[in-house]
Amino acid sequence: MISDRMLIRGGKPLSGLVSAQGAKNAALPAMAASLLLRGRRLKLSRVPDLQDIHTMAGLLRHLGAEIEFSGGIMTIDVPEDLKWETPSDLVRQMRASSLVLGPLVARCGRAVLPLPGGCAIGSRPIDFHLKALSRMGAEIDLEQGSVHARTGGLSAARISFDFPSVGATENIMMTAALTEGETAIENAAREPEIVNLADVLRAMGASIEGDGTGTILVRGSRDLGDAEATIIPDRIEASTYLLAGVITRGRVQVGGIDPGHIAALTAKLEEAGVPLDIGPEAVSAAREGLCWNGVTIKTLPYPGFPTDMQPQIMAALCLAEGTSVIHESVFDSRYMHVGEFRRMGCKIDIQGNTAVIAGVPRVSGAEVHASDLRAGAALILLGLAAEGETVVCELKHVWRGYEMLMDKMRSLGADIELLPCDGPEGALDEAGG
Ligand code: EPZ
Q1: pLDDT score at 431
Q2: Is there an atom of ligand 1 within 6 Å of 305 CB?
Q3: 50, 69, 210, 372: which is deepest, by most CB within 10 A?
Q4: Would you call 138 exposed, middle or buried from its count of C-beta atoms within 10 A (0-12, 13-18, 19+)?
Q5: CB hemisphere CA count around 96 (13 angstroms)
């Protein structure tokens, strides 16, 4: 039984070097892309050992794939014939399950996918995905809360997204990779995870140009082949540890990353007065009695400030000298963590999608509850900086995205431990993270 509660004794500066894990949000689409193969193998390196990765592996196994995963290396063997109905219990666990929709329609001509529910950060529809698949020739029906998609054959098309949706871009890239002709994706997402997926698809034999820009051209092939690819470093996990150093006035170096992937964050930290040493691979926040000013941040699609760092930067700005303003422009309700922050003494006023944060000199420990993955990470950061003890509950959200979190935080000097589960006495083993 993995513990769901963490005790943090705050106030200790964190210092040292941590290396980034493989990116969760690159590994998940890469795994889904394996469904495009027929009787072939995809081998992925630097796959993080996370709850979401195991959920996706369970979904692929349900569809018929055979998966070996050990030491960051994942091999996925895809049979000639695949199932195309996805199980509700798995899909409802993880929104990223929607990434199998395009590959299944392209590979099997059919797919049934329970509509992923909303979550703590917003309604999270998949209308962009469905509209684009229709443009390529799929018939889409919604019956009993599931998407029923079918096609007699897909055609290349010109797709233009109303918003540069990461998941929709990924779904259509994969669909187009198995569709003859040239599909153009306009107003495409530009995240590094998109480029990583393009590398996976190119390794399979698809021809892709423009990944990382707003217009991606995909020339598909009906027979993609065995492929090997490496997952990029996780820019959000790395950024979280960098902020752990800042918020505790320590000095944390994150290694194994591409500093360009976190440029929006490092630019904001420097604007706030946080001295950084940005090397070819690593970034560290300097110590020297660190203090920082309030700043204004608007979350945007890449290369803008990432919404997945909004709760974490908010935690640091709660301890800034001065007032900060955050505009959350990507999700329609990503402030579930604010109530928990206030319990620790943060002064935050929410007006619509705007948060006004008045910096305070200190925050104090409390029992707080994680509402989602990044909110949980942010509460851990606050607990590390707080005076006294903090108990962060509902860690199940955190284990979804942070590999070896306890070991990495302890290696930086954090005084943290997992508490026995509230439920039946179970052997308390260290969480997967
Ligand atoms: C991906 O989610 C990430 N997840 C999210 O990370 C990340 O927050 C998000 O991109 C934005 O960067 C994975 O990659 C697995 P979107 P995704 O489609 O693809 C709306 C984490 O913490 N929208 O770019 O679901 C949507 O509601 C997670 O690791 C539609 O309206 O994000 C949102 O407001 C959280 N219709 C906005 O677009 C659609 O069809 C951006 O969503 C699709 C999206």
Answers
A1: 38
A2: no
A3: 50
A4: buried
A5: 24
What's the CA-to-centroid distance between 345 and ligand 1, angstroms?
Answer: 30
Looking from the CA of residue 331, the nearest atom of ligand 1 is 34
Per-residue model confidence (pLDDT) at position 1 = 61
For 5-21+233-430, CATH gives 3.65.10.10
Three-state SS at 370: coil
Mean pLDDT of 276-305: 90
Is 43 a residue whose pLDDT tops 60?
A: yes
Give me the mean pLDDT over the 347-368 stretch: 97
Mutate to test the pocket of ligand 1, among 31, 55, 99, 166 (most ligand atoms within 8 A of CB): 166
Is the CB of 168 within 6 Å of ligand 1? yes
Catalytic residue IDs: 119
pLDDT 10s digits, 309-351: 999 999 999 999 999 999 999 998 899 999 999 999 999 999 9
Mean pLDDT of the chain: 94
For residue 35, the CA-to-ligand 1 centroid distance in Å is 21
Is the Cβ atom of 322 under 6 angstroms away from ligand 1?
no
Residues of the chain with CATH 3.65.10.10: 5-21+233-430, 24-230
Distance CA(370)–CA(399), nearest Å, equals 11
| Mutational test site, ligand 1, from 194, 330, 337, max ligand atoms within 8 Å of CB | 330
CATH number belonging to the domain at 24-230, selected among 3.40.50.2000, 3.65.10.10, 3.90.550.10, 3.40.50.720: 3.65.10.10
Give 120 or 45, the one with higher predicted confidence: 45
DSSP string, 190-221: --HHHHHHHHHHHHHT-EEE-BTBSEEEEE--
